[in-house]
């Protein structure tokens, strides 16, 4: 079943414009995050870049050596960008590029590493969804604690109207997506493969659900499969797209930490959820917090950081209010002076201990007696022992 298109994206019987075709072709010619092509596109339209590569008439360009140019030229003859655009359109998707109304302008913070374009399928506008989004990432081989925290945190964020962004991988990513979906929220999966490729296969049903209830996004054209480097490059898009990144569980060499580091470099909020100090899967998060990330424990604390100033404040955390917390200061001072021993203490000693006149101490002792805090035995007063 095809995914519904957002309003205004139906291009049936409309030929793609040259710039979109050229960017779709460059998307095949180069890998995600190619700063050389990105720097080039900052100076020239994509149509001229393609023509220059094809003709070999490339002006002096920083970082573009003959070997790299030869690599681009070797890839150029094969792909037909029109086929890629039709393929994603048939899947209910589109290829968005800088200048489109749906393009998230915060991706421009990646500079020369900005995506050439993004392939998307699903419902909603990527630009609008990204305006109020937060990344929840972590280890693939997560613990039951990590999966529970990621799911609960994402569900709470979705209930507060936030879009949860992650990478559709096993572990924390999957738990984050499922948490948002479970409460009827919207979630975005940024993939390291084509939007028409279900990877990992064990998450195929989850990915299908995200494509119906949210958005699937990728820099890679249809049919492309992931590799280790593409996962790392994908993480920079997650970091740039969102208002902040929360790492739930991560070992010291976890790829999730690269997302947090990119978020920090882009001046986005980086947050971490603490775990057991005995768990290797929490060691990376703890190191992240020590290096400056903010410790968070629930959605309220996350949204206080990334939300609107004054509108998304987290409630003050406090322990339970005890009856003695409600006592007037003078009464509390007298209570502190009363010993819990069986013999208690006379008025004179309590006056010295509290620094108050004996008559005032006596008055406050009777108040405390009425409240059940102290009791009188002859001339002495003592604390009531709770049973």
TrEMBL record:
Residues 95-305 form the Smf/DprA SLOG domain. This is DNA polymerase III subunit beta. PANTHER family: PROTEIN SMF. GO terms for biological process: DNA-mediated transformation. It holds the Pfam family DNA_processg_A. Belongs to the DprA/Smf family.
